[in-house]
# Entry
Amino acid sequence: MSQLLPTHPEKTWQEELIDAVRDPALLLQQLDLPVTLLEHARLASRDFSLKVPRPFLQRMRKGDINDPLLRQVLPLAAELEETEGYSTDPLQEQAYNAHSGMVHKYRGRVLLIVAPNCAVNCRYCFRRHFPYQDNNPGRQQWQQVFAQLRADQSISEVIFSGGDPLASPDRHLQWLVDSIAAIPHIRRLRVHTRLPVVIPQRITTDTLGWLAGSRLHCSVVLHINHRQELDAAVGGAIAQLRDAGITVLNQSVLLKGVNDCAQTLAELSEALFEQGVLPYYLHLLDRVQGAAHFGVDEPRAIALHRQLQARLPGYLVPRLARDDAGASGKTLVS
Ligand SMILES: *Cc1c(COP(=O)(O)O)cnc(C)c1O
Ligand code: SF4
# Structure
């Protein structure tokens, strides 16, 4: 009698993280792209490395250098150009980074840098030069952060940021949430993450345990820029979050060559809504050195946003926003 062979067992999220594509040659080979791109990809990935999890890679079209998912992760020669008006810390976050692991910039809300890295390296990232090595607090430093939170009654929301907070193990996140939930004036927990988009199996029972299991009202803000990023597996991860009672929102960055078109943005909003996700922000690119080739100028961004408003009901139109250095919140652009 022959035994049934197991069908391909799904890899765990940790295995997918380890198995992410980090070699530009492998990325090009997997996507049937010309090796002529290799030299620049190698150079541009020296300062900010290439990292693409395979579940995300599988959603890219082969042989298409303009694929909107590929464009977000492929290191290009353009990154090496110095552009005036672009800096390494465009939001001057380092000025608000008094305590390791904590950025207190927005009124009533505090960002905690709970993971020093991401599952995917997005070429346009405003934190591509962030000093994560100074923001990897140990337990004792976390106790200092909790003391700060306890002492400041004005803080009602804690935002897990990164890196990508979900790059941390669930048991660490559970410990953080338990400690935060013990501070009475904190009411809300928010998690900004791209991990369930690039590795959908990141949402596990343990994850839902700390997200939905405390007294804090919880929301998850995903980061999706193009509807092609949403496949059935991502939809499944979102459904698990929603079934646990978590509010799921999305933020996008307006990126030249990826989503700078009213039709593309409208399709994204509609696809998000069909999965139960509301579009929250459409960010103007932060002026970080190395990302200038993704820039869409403000008048054009406003025109695109108007076209979106003309096409969609208000609840499907994300707020067009800009982060200004030194401001205590986002600036809405209209
Ligand atoms: C804007 C922003 C916040 C704060 O967001 P609000 O929704 O305005 O409270 C937190 N984290 C990141 C990464 C942001 O861009
Ligand atoms: S997931 Fe977010 S923080 Fe991480 S590289 Fe991408 S844009 Fe930056």
